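Lab notebook, bench 4. The sequencing result for the construct came back, and we need a structural model before the next group meeting so we can plan mutations. Quick request posted to the team channel:

Model the 3D structure of this chain.
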Amino acid sequence: MSFLGSIRDGLLPPSRDDDDVTDRLTLQRVHTAWLDGLLPGKPKPYVAVALAIPIAVWIFGFLLAADRDRFLRSHDWQAQPFFFTVHLVVLRLFVTAYTKHFLDGLAFLESGAQGVRKGIRRILGFQGFATAVVLAVPLIYLDLVYLTGPEFFESNDAQGTLHHVAATDYLLAALWSAEWVATTSVWVVLGGFAILTIQAVERYKFTAPLETVLHERHYRPFLRMSAQGASILFGYTAAYALYVWYTKGATSDYIGLWVTAGLLIFSFVPPWMRLKTRLARMVRDTSHDMQVHVIAARELATTLDDGKPTYTLDEIGARVDVALAMLRLDHLEHLYRDLGRSEGQAILLRLLAPVATIVARLLRPG
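Done. Here's the predicted structure in token form:
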């Protein structure tokens, strides 16, 4: 009966549902980031506040404008309520998706892996925010240079003159700066969780048997972070491209988008490679044990075979054990080869959107 137990416990573990609703993107806060605690935790109130902030700034700018007709004709000011809201929504989506799936992945590792949770506080806490501000400083500086240069004052967005920057222009720059901080905060999330994932996988083992890990894909939450990040980036790209087209932006406006796409790839490839390396060692050890079992079962079957046309139950069991071990070995290799394939394909497909913006920019005259 040993081969029946193997079928029950090893070869056919409970099936999984790849379309589980828990994999859906959500704006529901799962972990309080620094300053994010001031914003609503539920999706609808969060979107309402994310929209109310730029609208309030827009109203203040309208009241502050010396020439309100010119203010109303500004494409950038027209787009800001939408574009600023997109940044806050994208940031919450990244924070929620990466935090949730990382915690789900830790649940499949040894209990000591829960200590890695402390790293989340560094990424989403004051340290992460300070890092995002530092990363945003050179980008904000470029915007300030643009704000005081002739190119900006030749556009329909400028409210002042080349030698006199209007207060509403500085207010617009403040919105740009906040958007850069939101973007660089996403960069911190992408890089930070990639490092945490590598640390967790390197230091701690999966608690379930190898076949269960591969069949039920206990490694999947770590890869789902990047897969869902690619979905978010796909929508972000559409909003970014629409904003740049409407405001007649320059190539530098795409910096945030392209860097985010590059970091998204970074957040997937190194953790995926470390997972493959970690599980490869487990596959080799298990394959060796199975091969030893196959050899032993074959020897037993040969010993029991007396050349007669009929077989005893022990001989039948030994032969079935050989076949089962070979099937399990092939099944194990197949599961290992497929590790991360579907997530990688999904990421590459969705990253075609930001890549398309590069091609479009290169082909656009002027």
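Residues 255-304 form the longest helix (50 residues).
Will bring this to the meeting.
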